[in-house]
Amino acid sequence: DAGVTQSPTHLIKTRGQHVTLRCSPISGHKSVSWYQQVLGQGPQFIFQYYEKEERVRGNFPDRFSARQFPNYSSELNVNALLLGDSALYLCASSWLGQGRDAGYTFGSGTRLTVV
Amino acid sequence: GQQLNQSPQSMFIQEGEDVSMNCTSSSIFNTWLWYKQDPGEGPVLLIALYKAGELTSNGRLTAQFGITRKDSFLNISASIPSDVGIYFCAGPTGANSKLTFGKGITLSVRP
């Protein structure tokens, strides 16, 4: 079975541009969460989608948005890119998205560089 | 918000040695998770702990859930070169919908 797949693996954008990152969860998983990992830090929670709706949002500006499609795949969109948005963006999928046995599985991430 | 503290930032050990790392919080966590991240990859779950005082092993790895529920420990025995990586502790918050991570400890193993 395929794990969590993310695309693209690497991306370079210019300040002020917009970017879309994609994630396909493990088959059968209904929840997708997005995390931002800046170099030297642990992943920071951005938001979680479950059954195509945003369930929880972290402390990120409105420039960050996402959506989840009927097949449970997800897109993360970031507008008006800043240099500080340069990071590894991780997608995590789970069946329920909550509960202590949520069993989050992470993808390999998309490395975004803003210049 | 809840924070998880890991220190030191880096650890250097000799192959074959044991290593212990801990994670502390000012808040109570009901679940403790330990992840390992290799370069260019996402975090991979090593051990999950669900009960205060619980001691769980996964091969050469052993982790414990502190009885105060504010700390956890991970031990790696007889280290090997492939143990190199970044080790994160994490805990679910917000109705267990999101994970809070520590800053991680980078482990280097000298052959």
Structure, described:
The complex is a heterodimer of chains A (115) and B (111). Chain A has no helices and eleven strands. Chain A is mostly beta strands. The mean pLDDT of chain A is 92. Chain B is mostly beta strands and 111 residues long. Chain B contains no helices and eleven strands. In chain B, β4 (32-37) and β5 form a beta hairpin. The radius of gyration of chain B is 13 Å and the shape is globular. Classes of the chains: A mainly beta (115), B mainly beta (111). The A-B interface holds A 4, 33, 35, 40-45, 48, 55-56, 58-59, 90, 92, 97-100, 102-109 and B 1, 4, 30-31, 40-45, 50, 88, 90, 92, 94-104.
Concise synopsis of the structure shown:
The complex is a heterodimer of chains A (115) and B (111). Chain A has 115 residues and is mostly beta strands. Chain A has strands at 5-7, 10-13, 19-24, 31-37, 44-50, 53-57, 64-68, 74-78, 87-94, 105-106, 110-114.
Q: Which key features would you list for this structure?
A:
heterodimer, A: 115 residues, mainly beta, four-stranded antiparallel β-sheet, 50% strand, B: 111 residues, six-stranded mixed β-sheet, five-stranded antiparallel β-sheet, globular
The biggest beta sheet of chain B reads: 6 strands, mixed
Number of helices of chain A: 0
Shape of chain B: globular
Major interchain interface with per-chain residue totals: A-B, 28 and 25 residues
List low-pLDDT spans of chain A: none
Low-confidence stretches of chain B: none
Q: Structural class, judged by helices and strands of chain A?
A: mainly beta
- Report the strand count of chain A: 11
Q: Strand-and-helix sequence of chain A, N→C?
A: EEEEEEEEEEE
How much strand of chain B?
A: over 45%
Structural class of chain B: mainly beta
First-residue to last-residue Cα separation of chain B? 40 Å
Radius of gyration of chain B: 13 Å
In terms of quaternary structure, the protein is: heterodimer
Shape of chain A: globular
Sketch the topology of chain B as an H/E string, one letter per element: EEEEEEEEEEE
- Mean pLDDT of chain B, to the nearest integer, reads 93
